[in-house]
Amino acid sequence: MKTLLVTLLLLLAGTAQASTLRCGSALISRDDYTSEVLDKCGEPLSRDFLGYREVVDHYGFRNEVQVEEWTYGPRNGMYHFLRFEGNRLIRIDSKRGN
Fold it and tell me: Which of 19, 33, 54, 83 is the most exposed place for a label (fewest CB within 10 A)?
């Protein structure tokens, strides 16, 4: 049981998820638009197009939105991965570089 707990903790320590990220003196957070992130953080190290995702709005209409992942870093040894769906920031993950 102890081994399982230690293993799970080590796996979780590899990446961290946050709802905000500091870019210089500015902060970006979930639900920001891609244009806001570009203004505050500048060009990312890389931009990856991941495909499309189907979403259903409040009225029950289905739409396909573009999914992208932007990578920033290394900043103080950390890489930051920003996932956008439909030009809105939905997730910020951070991982220590090797």
Answer: 54
List own/partner pairs for 1-6 with CB under 8 A and 24 or more apart.
Answer: none
The share of the chain scoring above pLDDT 90, in percent, equals 72
Domain of 51 in residue numbering reads as: 17-96
Q: Indicate whether 29 belongs to any domain.
A: yes
**Three-state helix/strand/coil letters over 13-75:** HCEEEECEEEECCEEEECCCEHHHHHHHHCCCCEEEEEEEEEEECCCCCEEEEEEEEEEEEEE
Structure tokens at 97: 């570089």
> Do residues 64 and 54 make contact, with C-beta atoms less than 8 angstroms apart?
yes
Tally the domains of the chain: 1
The answer to whether the CB of 66 falls within 8 A of the CB of 75 is: no
pTM above 0.90, yes or no: no
